[in-house]
Amino acid sequence: MDNPHLYRELTEIFREVFDDDTLTLTPETTAADIDGWDSMAHIGLIVAIEERMGVKFNSAELESLHNVGQLAGVLEYKLESRQVKA
Amino acid sequence: MRLAETQEPHSAASTFQQLANTRMDFVRAGRLDKAVQRYRSAHGNLPGLPVVRLALLGSSTLGHLHAGVRVGALRHGVLVDVYENAFGMYRQEAADVSSGLHAFRPDVVCLALDAHHVAASGGEGRAEQVLADLRELWRAVKEMLGCVVVQQTVLPVHWPVMGNQESRLPQSPASVVESVNRLLRSEAEAQGVYLLTVDTWAAIDGLSRWFEPALWNRSKQEVHPRVSDLYGEQVGRILAALRGKSSKCLVLDLDNTLWGGVIGDDGMEGIVLGQGSAVGEAHVALQRYALQLSERGIILAVCSKNDEANALAPFADHLEMVLRRKHIACFVANWQDKATNLRYIAETLNIGLDSLVFVDDNPAERALVRRELPMVAVPELPEDPSGYVGTLAAAGYFEALEVTAEDRARAELYRSNAERENLRRSTTDMGGFLQALQMELTWSPFDSIGLKRIVQLMNKTNQFNLTTRRYTEAEVAAMLDDPSVLTLQLRLSDVYGDNGVIALLVGRLADSATLDMETWLMSCRVLGRNVEEATLNVLVEQARAMGCTRIVGTYRPTAKNGMVRDHYQRLGFAALGQQEDATRWELWLDSYASRDVPMTIKGGKTWTTHTCTAS
Questions:
Q1: What pLDDT, on a 0 to 100 scale, did the predictor assign at position B612?
Q2: CA B98, B102, B107 angle in degrees (round to 5)?
Q3: Confidence check: pLDDT of B325 > 80
Q4: Which SS3 state, helix, strand or coil, does residue B305 take?
Q5: Helix (H/G/I), strand (E/B), else coil: B265
Q6: Which residues, in sequence order, are CB contacts of B93 under 8 Å at separation 6+?
Q7: Helices (H), B336-387
Q8: pLDDT > 50? residue B188
Q9: Beta bridge partners of B501
């Protein structure tokens, strides 16, 4: 949770994708904790994050994600390296 | 969205439709879809929005497209229930009458086949083989399920191996896909199949937005979720067109819309139109597009704040004008507000306000019309006139399924109709007016030549329609040889021209002596001309020939057919009472005497002619 801004943005996307305005995220949140987070919804979630945040995950990265903390970690790295390049 | 969920069904229907009309990405569309689904499961269907049962069949993942399809259809006024086959099993399900597909009883089957399935490896003669298989599948689906078939074209996702000269290698996957798409386009009409041309939309939008190899590898989704709303929009247009919900008339403003500048101030020499100016060319492009629409049956009207003489001058004398007065069915130039004038245009042309598309460069006029007449489609034009055509075309208001000869003649027909209306306004003697029209009513049973037009009329006529029963082409075809069904199609011509088919009737023998009218519909263009009475004369004569002594009629009310509530009563039927939501009426034939009608009646299979005395 060391990046509250990123978690806010992620929470908003999760709430829209899973149609639940009370949903909250912690680094330990996994698919088992959220209603409707099946493999199909997972694809939609990843595409939503890519579209909304302007990033692109590669296949290897996606296979390594097991909870929200790991997702945030990969995202943080991507967003930072984009800033450096810019 | 939350607001809509607490509203009563009529308000909820319009709120949901407005929400569907706002710009949104696939995530928002998904959320709106969930809200509508929740509402429907709690309160049932939404009034005024027909439900279409759509089976989306394919050999890859399609589940991510359902929400986009439902929202796209909602935008065009149709609710959709979607069925998807078990993964990869579309052929088996089509063939197996005990499958989920058959239990679902689809109105429409959309075959969304992916490029890997169609041509992963390519090969000699592969495209022809694919088409032969598809023809067989279409036939089976239509016969077994009795539904409309929509065939998706193939997304060109395979990389070329030759490059620009790929066509020299017809067996390559890329070439096979191209050939399949070409064959689909040349065969669809003859096979009675509608196309969903995703290859065209991906070409406009960018194939890389539609297809991503990584996503294909990961989840076998060929159409990317981020374009699921665009995909759904196209499917929605087709479903809406199948339900007769396409717009019919393009209403054009003049100053700064059809030409640059203000004719009243700048004069003929001052307005900007035609070669030599980028702005002038943009206005010509809009005129050309309007003319093309007119040539395929869209009615054109003008609605302008101007003195009529000023407004008409360029149509008569400006050399760069593409549109001429003869192309405009209803020309209104005055100083009244545009909402009033649009009502007048709809009334004169005898079409619903929801059939109008209003194009005006002035944001204030657009806002006024949106507020006063929310059912009129008002595209949000860009500031630069070079974008007018693209905006109008992309909105898809005029999506059409068939081009019938009557479509091509329709613009002409509406123009002469507007002239008739003027004649009526100028004469106070109604009987004299009708006589002067020299009408001729021609009837015949339904026939296979007119089948497409008959089905089209049955599915789009809303106002003068006693039961609003919709039919598939297969259902109508089955009537042709059924001795227990009486079908009538009636055409009307007059001094101004041929109105085409203007009325359809279907009656079924309920018992040996009673004909039960399942459908009676008429085009509103011929209202007020005693066609109903003349039609009844024909109907009674034919019912007698079948051995009937009684005709029973039904009026089933909808949001749009209030005008025919008293139809049967006016024609002398006696009330039989209420049956569920419908009223039932009867007419005994022994005491029926043919009505005097101001027209000649011709018809029958044998084309025997007899004349009814004019009043």
A1: 34
A2: 175
A3: yes
A4: strand
A5: helix
A6: B57, B85, B86, B99, B100, B101, B102
A7: 338-349, 363-372
A8: yes
A9: B491
Alpha helices in B192-248, H assignment, sequence order: 198-205, 207-210, 213-219, 228-242
pLDDT in the model for residue B607: 33
Q: Which residues in chain A have Cβ-Cβ distances shorter than 8 Å to B27?
A: 13, 16-17, 44, 48, 51-52
pLDDT of the residue at B529: 85
- Using 50, 70 and 90 to split pLDDT, how confident is the model at B363? confident
Is pLDDT at B428 greater than 60 in this prediction? no
Q: Tell me the CB-side half-sphere exposure of residue B53, using CA atoms within 13 A.
A: 11
pTM for this structure?
0.69
Q: CB–CB of B126/B177 below 8 Å?
A: no
A83 touches chain B (CB under 8 A): no
d(Cα A16, Cα B32) in Å, to the nearest integer?
Answer: 10
Contact B74, B16 (CB under 8 A): yes
Q: How many CB atoms lie within 10 A of CB B107?
A: 22
Helix (H, G, I), strand (E, B) or coil at B518: strand
Place of tokens 């049955």: B458
Alpha-carbon torsion B146, B188, B183, B213, what sign? Answer: negative
Query: Which chain B residues touch A9 with a CB distance below 8 Å?
Result: none
Using the Cβ of A22 and the Cβ atoms of chain B, whether some distance falls under 8 Å is answered with no
Whether residue B424 lies within 8 A of chain A, CB to CB, comes out as: no
Q: Is the pLDDT of residue B605 over 90?
A: no
